[in-house]
Write a structure and sequence with these properties.
Rossmann fold; 18% strand; OB fold (Dihydrolipoamide Acetyltransferase, E2P); binds adenosine-5'-diphosphate; globular; single chain; alpha/beta; 695 residues; 4 domains; seven-stranded parallel sheet; binds magnesium ion; 27 helices
Length: 695
Amino acid sequence: MSRPFDLDPLFRTLTVLPGVGPRNGKLLEKLVGGPKVLDLLWHLPIDFVDRRFAPKIKDAPNGQVATLTVTVGKHIPNQRKGQPYKVWCTDETGTINLIFFHAHKDYLEKQLPLNEKMIVSGRIEYYQGNPQMTHPDAIGTESMRAEIETVEPVYPLTQGITNKAVKKAVQAALGFVAQLPEWQNGAYKERQKWPDWHTALDAAHNPPDEKALEPTHPARSRLAYDELLASQLTLALVRHRQRQVNGRSFKSDHTLRQKVLDVLPFKLTGAQERSVQEIDKDMAEPARMLRLLQGDVGSGKTVVAALAMLSAVENGAQAAIMAPTEILARQHAESLKPWLEAAGIRFVVLTGRDKGKARDTIVQQISNGAAQIIIGTHSIFQESIEFADLGMAVIDEQHRFGVHQRLELSAKNKGVDMLVMTATPIPRTLALSAYGDMDISRLDEKPPGRKPIDTRLIPIEKIDPMIDGLKRQIETGARIYWVCPLVEESEKLDLAAAEDRYDILKHFFGDRVGLIHGRLKPAEKDEAMRKFVNGDTDILVATTVIEVGVNVPEATIMVIEHAERFGLSQLHQLRGRVGRGAEKSYCFLVYTGPLGETAKERLGIMRETEDGFLIAEKDLQLRGSGDILGVRQSGMAEFKLANLSVHGDLLVAARDDARLIIDKDPELKGTRGEALKTLLYLFERDQAIQNLRSG
Ligand code: ADP
Ligand code: MG
């Protein structure tokens, strides 16, 4: 099936619309974020003006938009430059001046002919006790009354495009919209009191009143739901396809696991127990596992991953765990080593650093099955490495690993049970939209015994006393991260800031200060990190590149400079670098005032809580969804019609709906299924349809 014929007009370029030429077409394209008629239709009004209010002059209130019927009495051209041109008009109740700056006399005389009855619409202002209207929005003859006396949508605009032009183009575009088959579930649609798609789109662009602009209005929520359903259906199709590939049923008596549990120096938290059970259940089923393990830095994901990998090994299969960087891979190996040794498991570590003979040996152990567990960077999947029998893969994505890469990875490893770990706490709604293809386990409970991190706000003026305090801390063995912000637009400047800070701190602390940033070569980065880990340096000045998961329990102080420039989630991630050992930890948020409202709120929240999930929810409220995941990183497009901070419930409903649809009609062949294909095309989920075809 290719795109339904009825949708074609919506995929034409904007220039097919009346009044849209090559030049303003480019502007319009920029404004609506795409070159197609459809992109314009997704550009919804943010306000409206009611021009139906048509009082007499004497009843027209100050400050309100009104449509007046007046007789043009006199043209009063400006005497001097800078003065306005006035047109004096009357009706039977009073008089009003129409005000024009930079006016052309000839033009105005034609527009507002003397003694003619005219309709003018615009905002009424009182000036020295008399009503006036500056630059009326609409001027017309009596015959144009119906056209003027309407409710006018107000669109987000950009320089060079008027609202009138957008409105005209949209109205024309609405004419391109065909009646499409209904893809919503009838009962659900009725319960929600939703209109048909066609009607909803029309209503969204022609809001009859203020309510119609609210995102919860039936027309708007229907459109939002359509978009969410298209996205969830795409994920559900991916999921279905991946699970169709036969997974294996890993059932075991957990003898190896018990050996590890016996040597663990701690008891699992409730959240860890629960997650392990959820994973066990998935792995025991013949369908393949696609599960996300979410938990703050330090919530103890590694041990959960280890216990899960053992299930595969107990069944004679191999398991692999992949980290995004060399350092993290090595650190995983360090953490896992005592546990794996206790269970007598043969494991290898493979990263880009391994070369030559040593590497050949490792690769061989992977392919002949001598290695039961493989620890490495993501490159183990990118290169031509043969596994003897890979049964389970753990991907420690640490929010650097995008949806697309993830999908690619799972496509390459058919049937392999997948556990993805992320340290970015994501609000439930967002997690669904980014990971709707996966089931989710949450580690929302910190291992016991962690001391709260003492978080303080320090104005930049007080930085010297803070540095004195740090000196005393270092004397008692503290190690300090010092983060300088990296703003993408000017990496050079930021680097300079970090280097300056490095120089200043060297002045105080001598050569026990290290510097790490994105411009360093990997080996140099590793070296700077290693020195800090070993305690050869006490302070590590860093741009935000510091490795997300690196564990340096001796690091107890985090200084974040220009904290006001960071987003909440980012601050939270950075703070998570400390508080990992037995000593009390501090986080100093150094800011440069004056603080804006949002920055103030962000820093306040940081001081109040360490709960990553709570912080993520707040972050979502404060700045919308895109930044939390990092749209580019996650590969998740922003929604155009849905707003996750409002439509969260709809997202959950869409997820359930999508899974039900795919359970019942995985190939979308029924009546609703066919209509849903149209929905997928409408939202340009052509890839999902590819999936359907080759599935
Ligand atoms: P994450 O990968 O989620 O950031 P880790 O798995 O590295 O966290 O765990 C952080 C630290 O907490 C490690 O030193 C680990 O051994 C320890 N840890 C994990 N689970 C527990 C627990 N239930 N009780 C006490 N300590 C734990
Ligand atoms: Mg970790």
